[in-house]
Design goal:
The chain is of the alpha+beta class. The chain contains seven helices and 17 strands. It has helices at about 15-20, 25-35, 95-100, 125-135, 155-160, 200-205, 235-245; strands spanning about 10, 35-40, 40-45, 50, 60, 65, 75-80, 105-110, 115-125, 140-150, 165, 170, 175-180, 185-190, 210-220, 220, 230-235. Strands 7, 8, 9, 10, 13, 14, 15, 16 and 17 form a nine-stranded mixed sheet that branches. A hairpin with a 2-residue loop joins strand 2 and strand 3. The two termini are about 40 Å apart.
Length: about 250
């Protein structure tokens, strides 16, 4: 009687790369041979290495490559007047309306107030949504605002130095004045704080209330040319960079 062959766990690395859309299996083998692929921080040059695609951190040329999985991450351009919830008991338009045709149960990652437009992320992974929105991880957000102008040098210096609000200090990572004309100024703010209406309250505090506000970026994800009310899927190395922001594996 012959002994059964031992069960070998994991999936061949070249198949994981191919399944993730990096390259064909043969081209993935070439990437491995060239030393361009690493697993959990170690370069792999041996063909046939098996990995757990749900937990391994795989990179090609330094870029994180999430394995194919059931996770879904979406970028949405939230229109003005739309609430950031998946449903609204007052009957207002919601982000959930924009993805009503999807089968997954989706969670919004943080919120934008009803008067703010722009980028909001959705996922079917509740734990990932919580971590990406949690202030302790300090995921940076970029906003473009039209405010009451003009902004003096003193006000710009005050904003760059940090402002104390009722619920604590607010420090900007970056501030850029794009344009000033008459009583109108356009600025770009980068901050890692995600408190409620923080940009509006910040600008109110320095006497330059916001007239229009758009979020352009969340972590490495950019709004780009995505039109209001439209949705796109986040995948590949772009998703890898987002997961790296908060040290998430593709599945836990």
């Amino acid at each position: 009687m012959t002994n059964p062959k031992p069960h070998i766990e994991g999936t061949r690395l070249q198949k994981v790369l191919a399944d993730a859309g990096v390259a064909s299996r043969r081209a993935s083998e070439q990437l491995i041979e060239e030393g361009r692929v690493s697993v959990d921080g170690a370069v792999v040059r041996t063909q046939g290495k098996r990995v757990n695609p749900q937990t391994a951190v795989i990179r090609v040329d330094g870029e994180r490559i999430p394995a194919a999985s059931g996770q879904v991450f979406l970028a949405v351009n939230k229109p003005l007047g739309t609430v950031s919830t998946m449903a609204d008991d007052q009957g207002r338009p919601s982000v959930g309306d924009l993805v009503a045709d999807r089968a997954e149960r989706l969670f919004h990652i943080g919120r934008l107030d009803v008067e703010t437009e722009g980028l909001i992320l959705l996922t079917n992974d509740g734990a990932a949504a919580h971590r990406l929105a949690h202030p302790s991880y300090g995921v940076r957000k970029v906003y473009r605002a039209v405010v009451k102008g003009p902004l003096s040098r003193e006000v710009v210096s005050q904003l760059r130095a940090g402002v104390e609000l009722d619920d604590g200090p607010v420090s900007l990572d970056a501030l850029r004045v794009i344009d000033q004309s008459g009583d109108r100024a356009q600025i770009e703010l980068t901050l890692h704080i995600g408190r409620n209406r923080v940009v509006r309250r910040l600008m109110d505090h320095v006497g330059h209330p916001v007239r229009q506000l758009v979020r352009l970026q969340f972590g490495p994800i950019r709004l780009g040319r995505l039109r209001p009310g439209h949705v796109r899927r986040i995948s590949g190395s772009e998703l890898g960079r987002l997961l790296d922001e908060v040290d998430l594996s593709t599945q836990r």
